[in-house]
Amino acid sequence: MFNKWYDLYEDWELIESSFAAQYNIRLSQVDNMSWQEFCSLLNGIMPKTPLGSIVAIRSEEDKDILKNFTKEQHKIRNDWRNRNNPIKDMTNEEKEEKIKEAQNLIKEMFGGI
Fold it and tell me: What sign for the dihedral angle of Cα 21, 24, 26, 30?
């Protein structure tokens, strides 16, 4: 349900402002929204909201678009990716083990070739 491009805690203000902009819902004033409804609405946040625009920056992969990013957009993207890189905290041994796991999986997929 949640994706790797936002964090419920870190991005709460963006979530609140996006709900207000897109749905005209002030989350601080809602006492009867179910978790399921909240999750559904959050998954429907559009790109032209505060959260949507930040997610678009964080997740961009197109080199032509990245060439036109401002310094601030690059900073937003790079800061997020540096903070949320699972490999960063792995030891060399753990990295080697993950590589072996991936290699074995690929071998299995292609019949042990």
Answer: negative
| Burial 14-49, CB ≥16 within 10 A → b, else e | bbbebbebbeebebeeeeeeeeeebeebbeebeeeb
SS3 9: coil
CA nearest to 57, candidates 36, 42, 37, 79: 79
What is this structure's pTM?
0.72
Q: What is the pLDDT of residues 22-76, one digit of tens each?
A: 999 999 999 899 999 999 999 999 999 999 999 999 999 999 999 999 999 999 9
- How far apart are the C-alpha atoms of 31 and 14, rounded to whole Å? 19
Cβ contact 49:16 at 8 Å: no
